[in-house]
Amino acid sequence: MEAAGAMSTTPSHASMVDSDDFDLSRLLNHRPRINVERQRSFDERSLGDLYLSAMDGRSGYMDSYESMYSPGGGLRSLTGTPASSTRLSFEPQPLVGEAWEALRRSLVCFRGEPLGTIAAVDNSSDEVLNYDQVFVRDFVPSALAFLMNGEPDIVKNFLLKTLLLQGWEKRIDRFKLGEGAMPASFKVLKDPKRGVDTLAADFGESAIGRVAPADSGFWWIILLRAYTKSTGDLSLSETPECQKGIRLIMNQCLAEGFDTFPTLLCADGCCMIDRRMGVYGYPIEIQALFFMSLRCALLLLKPASEGNSGKDDDIMERIVTRLHALSYHMRSYFWLDFQQLNVIYRFKTEEYSHTAVNKFNVIPESIPDWLFDFMPSRGGYFVGNVSPARMDFRWFALGNCVAILASLATPEQAGAIMDLIEERWEDLIGEMPLKICYPAIESHEWQSVTGCDPKNTRWSYHNGGSWPVLIWLLTAACIKTGRLKIARRAIDLAEARLARDSWPEYYDGKLGRYVGKQARKHQTWSIAGYLVAKMMLEDPSHLGMISLEEDKAMNPVLKRSASWTV
Length: 566
Description:
Layout: H1 24-29, H2 47-56, H3 83-87, H4 94-105, E1 107-110, E2 113-117, E3 134-135, H5 136-148, H6 152-166, E4 171-172, E5 175-176, E6 185-191, E7 196-202, H7 216-231, H8 240-254, H9 284-300, H10 311-334, E8 335-337, H11 338-345, H12 369-374, E9 380-382, E10 385-387, E11 390-392, E12 395-396, H13 397-405, H14 411-423, H15 425-428, E13 437-438, H16 443-450, H17 471-481, H18 484-497, E14 507-508, E15 514-515, H19 524-538
């Protein structure tokens, strides 16, 4: 087999496309035409083109923002339903109106201006904990919903205030966090006597396990790009403050250390899975978000100006270099399909040389039994983690969906991920989309991996629970790959339960049949995720806010030594 030591990028045959599944270009051709002159946007340029234009100081580096215009950005619905629904004359869905009302109830204001949405508005719970705070990652689907509905000011306020918080001194005990760190969440404190609003931020010092959020900065950059793409407003991203914020995040991620891989080393619980779940090391969620934020940063950073000592040039060059290395590493070593599974199954171990096939010394006996039955002959996915002598074979939904949207996955790999979802619908979707990871860990493994976490019992919460918020990422991936039938089917399942169950945070059980045992009701990102999925499906042009096209410059011909051939 070709390229035995690395994951094959073209392993699975494309499935037969259903009659109601189109490619994105056909979808866009059938929507109302907009009188905007289209030019080649910077999203369509290769990384090399972007960097060279920056180095040359050409004025056309980011001169095509007209092509970034999202039709929903200029309209605002007066009825509480998405502007896209009104524009395209869709039959109003009662659930959509209910969802918008619920989303607006979660808005929090700072000095009279809407600033974000709190995590949940669950009046039935006595314990508020931190669900009354605005979380950076939680706000992303809310922000996208407001952008699609022509309400960008909320998003702009959020971006600016979190940027302000980035500049705070951040300490946990006697240790000072890096300058680029973004908060996990913040809370608006109101003093009714003095009539003063203040902000209190959490950078991990109050979190369970005291883990700083590695993903907050990535989501902030991705959201800044979505805002710019939706509104066509360059003025925000080009401010010195935003440019500095992007550079601080990039500098923190690209700092040199003892790494031998281009992936980002992380602690357990540093992302959406924010409790101990064995995702320490190089989790797919962080790597996919890291890749996407690198690409967004490259698009948003301004070229170096005179007298800048080439500082911006240097960071852009480092981003380009890292992107090439990261895309190769992820596509080669994190990718798993039937063919590659068979290769790993036959791996030799203890190889010592630069020509080693089993580069990470993965022990074939570590392959879990469930995987042999789970892996279909058609389909594939990016595994959860790859590090020395360790490969986490679990499926993680967020990382795989973001890999598609960021074009970290090749078109063939993206199609294979969709094939896997179709082939293993009961396992990954069940009765409520979408499994955060699969499968659940249990018994002795649960004890050792989670530390007997009572919240992460099998098929609950982060341990194989079903999270409705992920439906927006699934829908976006479906639109990008032209697999609309999957998105429609998943949304139909969600609509049958979400409002009736009061918009819970997550569902439990192998099929996702039961409202989570500790799930909050009226969870904001469950509401927003549904709205974003509906609006994207009705107007696929919204996908441009959160999707990046494949960069051909990152697809060089792979040349390996003869030792890679089985």
